[in-house]
């Protein structure tokens, strides 16, 4: 089964904005806002049936956590209630990747990712982080598609540069120019919102969500960029964690400060995983790959 567009991790749209126009959005800004301030306001959530037994709600959070009176934005929420309410432990909050993946879309399309024992005893909760999906989404163009062109993704550029025989080929500059132009579109259409789209702000949103769910301590699962958010939350609110699973861990320092190295490590990880899959597949007679056929993959 292939995930829907809303559940797939889009090309890292905030990364270009961070690199080109708003370097202040990386890491924890050190605003001086105390941890207790983020949890001070408890908002009662109004859950309504939305589809396939799921429930949806919205959570207002400050646009600027340092200045709560400056206005709010609404975070889109979704949950699958625990299937055995009498044995319910609490809420398990899913931290989406990307940044830019819809947590709401993930729960809609991939609820089965969470095993039966979790679904029996936890409300599985997803949310769109600020700037994403249904939570005051960033716009980078006048059209419907906020992703940069696929032809100039980092992986496509690397492939074309390799075929051209030079790592310094003009195709790399094409990527830089395209991303710069595209990031300028983000500033044009969503410039007023961009300064508030930091991982720190998302962590403070997460703490408000924890409080709104009625949880004294959070139980959470994060994958890919979600591990950066989870690690940031843990560093800011270490006493408010019941259980935290970080899967496919990103090094926050490399992710924020060495994006090229992060891409290299990602590609290396994909290559290692593919090799392990094919090696395992070769040993299984019912697998469609790896039986001594080194020829054209189009033949499979």
From TrEMBL:
A Pfam family that the UniProt record links to this protein: Abhydrolase_1
SUPFAM superfamilies membership: alpha/beta-Hydrolases (SSF53474)
AB hydrolase-1 domain boundaries: 92-285
Keywords associated with the record: Hydrolase, Protease, Signal
Coiled coil: none
InterPro entries: AB_hydrolase_1, AB_hydrolase_fold, Serine_prot/Carboxylest_S33
GO terms of molecular function: peptidase activity
Origin: domain of life: Bacteria
A biological process term (GO) from this entry: proteolysis
Family: Belongs to the peptidase S33 family.
Protein name, per record: Protease
